[in-house]
Design brief:
Length: 330
């Protein structure tokens, strides 16, 4: 579905009024369209699940927003600098990363984000499945075509992780932390994961798909047995539900800003300091499985390439560039 700019503009006007009335004439003047056109756009919004009250002497007011993911709503809520972002909101898809890849292969303009309420083949790192039923969570994939060398991408997922962490903490009033390289953790349980998939052409990055699975509104009872002790959601931690469209729009704005900072290189000034601040592994005894070998040490932060540094018992340092570490002792 392509997005109708006038629908977005009308919705923005109505949202800004926070439930107050606006006359059809005022809307028509602000949007530079006829009153009949205002009415027909409002009918289109009604068909998407928005409800309005119309009072003869006062005009219209917004009384109901769609509960499910809505393209017009997310676009209307995007912060101003992110308004060039194309939003695709779906009910279900195999994987938002796969859909973003298909659209890139189809030469679609970037940046764009594919959001879905469910995924039938959601994937995580290391070939794992990302559990994605219809339970109020958010599955998003951002697509970019950066003009940078692949070597420069080594800190990309870490930078996005920090930004996701700060954004979620501000929006939902929780204390999430980052776990190297791509997890968001609240009180020891995973609340989000990031999967970055990039395609390379010789010494140039062709495109990047940045996938984020964020557990927003799933109830404690909604996890399969193998996940219930290791996964949580923002609603479980904050004790209230969140407006999924507002979360998607706020996150999208933040990710776009973080991407721009990464591409211009301005992230370098704060990357290390922010990582140290939110790093859940820092100072902890951790171990890494590499083939049959287990490497243990104290996590002391990241190096300039984004590798995790382990200080071993003999005082030497070991750089972990890939894989997954587990905390041995708190
Ligand atoms: C991980 O922790 O292993 C990363 C999980 C990433 C999951 C997200 S959900 C949206 C996007 N689509 C996918 O198929 N995967 C990513």
């Amino acid at each position: 579905m392509t997005i109708d700019d006038k629908d977005v503009l009308i919705l923005k006007e109505l949202l800004a009024l926070k439930g107050d009335f606006v006359s059809g004439n005022t809307l028509a003047e602000r949007l530079d369209v006829s009153r009949v056109s205002v009415w027909s756009h409002m009918e289109k919004l009604r068909a998407q699940g928005f409800e309005f009250e119309a009072v003869r002497s006062k005009g219209y007011r917004l009384t109901q927003k769609p509960a499910s993911l809505n393209q017009t709503m997310i676009t209307a809520l995007l912060p101003r600098p992110a308004q060039q972002l194309r939003v695709i909101a779906l009910d279900t898809i195999d994987s938002t990363n796969s859909e973003a890849e298909r659209q890139l292969a189809d030469a679609q303009k970037t940046p764009f984000v594919v959001c879905s309420r469910t995924q039938s083949a959601g994937r995580g790192r290391m070939g794992r499945v990302w559990h994605s039923p219809e339970n109020g969570n958010l599955y998003m994939s951002f697509a970019f075509r950066p003009q940078i060398s692949p070597a420069k991408l080594s800190t990309f997922t870490l930078w996005i992780g920090i930004n996701l962490c700060e954004c979620v903490n501000n929006l939902c009033n929780v204390d999430s932390l980052v776990k190297w390289p791509n997890d968001l953790i609240v009180k020891g349980k995973k609340v989000a994961g990031i999967l970055t998939e990039a395609r390379m052409d010789a010494d140039q990055t062709r495109d990047i798909v940045l996938g984020i699975g964020l557990n927003v509104n799933s109830p404690a009872s909604g996890w399969p047995a193998e996940l219930s002790s290791i996964a949580t959601s923002l609603s479980q931690e904050a004790g209230r539900e969140f407006d999924i469209n507002r979360v998607a729009a706020t996150l999208a704005g933040r990710i776009l800003q973080a991407y721009d900072q990464f591409i211009e290189g301005s992230h370098w000034t704060t990357l290390k300091e922010k990582w140290d601040h939110f790093d859940v592994l820092r100072g902890k005894q951790v171990s890494l499985l590499q083939g049959d070998a287990r490497i243990s040490g104290t996590a002391t932060g990241i190096d300039p390439h984004g590798a995790l540094i382990l200080e071993r018992e003999d005082g030497t340092h070991f750089q972990v560039r890939a894989g997954e570490v587990t905390i041995e002792k708190q």
